[in-house]
Amino acid sequence: MPPLVEVLRQSEHFLKGKGIATARLDAELLLSHLFGCKRLSLYLHPCDNMEGHLLSQFQHLLSRRGNREPLQYIVGEVDFYGLFIAVDRNVLIPRHETEELVGMLISRFENRPIGSILDLGTGSGAIGLALAKHFTEANVLAVDANQDVLSIAQKNAIRNGITNIRFMVSDWLENVDGTFDMIISNPPYLTDEEFENAQDEIKKFEPKFALVSKNNGLADIFKIIGTAGRFLAKDGILALETGSSQHESIASFAKNYFGKFESMGDLNGKDRFVFLQNSTKI
Ligand SMILES: C[S@@+](CC[C@H](N)C(=O)[O-])C[C@H]1O[C@@H](n2cnc3c(N)ncnc32)[C@H](O)[C@@H]1O
Known about the structure:
Blueprint: H1 4-17, H2 23-35, H3 41-44, H4 52-66, H5 71-75, E1 77-80, E2 83-86, H6 96-108, E3 116-120, H7 126-134, E4 139-144, H8 147-159, E5 165-169, E6 180-185, H9 192-196, H10 200-203, H11 208-211, H12 214-217, H13 219-228, E7 232-241, H14 247-254, E8 258-265, E9 271-279
Parallel strand pairs: 3-4, 3-6, 4-5, 6-7
Antiparallel strand pairs: 1-2, 7-9, 8-9
The chain binds S-adenosylmethionine.
């Protein structure tokens, strides 16, 4: 049986050949997933040789990654804002940009009481759960269009011991009642063309329904902006993650529904988030 360092070396070579830029890291993460240990432990307590049955399990994981399946679907979870979020192919893998949005909202509401939060298109539940964990006094409602998606979000709530959140099937705000201090959404916002040009990890494995929207990627954003106003409490905020070239169109559309529009950049300096306030529909 080959020593572990040799297995890692060959795996890195294999994944590089498949065009994966993070080949070594991915090989290490897959191996530590298989061993149920931290990545560093692979080097701190290296076993000399890999036994046959482990080696074949590892080769199976490696071939999935070589086929460009995202690492997060293979290991089945992702760290989002300090939470362990289980993911499978029904749900989008939560992104770092979305963590940034959560961080921005937490800063904004830090010194302000917050009783109710609505997460539209919750997917894995990442946004709603991170906010529910931080704002322990708030009641969070998380909705998505289909129950398979919500089952994963519900499991994530249980897994993280978060109880101030409930889940509901709804086509955006269709089944929603009441008002909220914060409405947040990371809706589908890619165009068909952007999806077709995306890397294989996205195009072949992530749910297209979670990513692509009609009308140049703007249909769902416009639907939310057009209907969310009457669900906002006084001084409430509607926060959206968007595509980086969409802010001009969104600003122009949103002025029919909201008095205040803010465009915020992500850490890469791209227009990424929109904050809307002072709904004309209250
Ligand atoms: C970009 S994903 C965001 C998932 C998660 N909130 C996140 O940030 O990782 C968009 C989500 O919106 C949901 N969705 C799409 N159309 C919807 C609709 N009409 N009503 C409610 N949810 C919808 C999808 O199922 C998906 O979970």
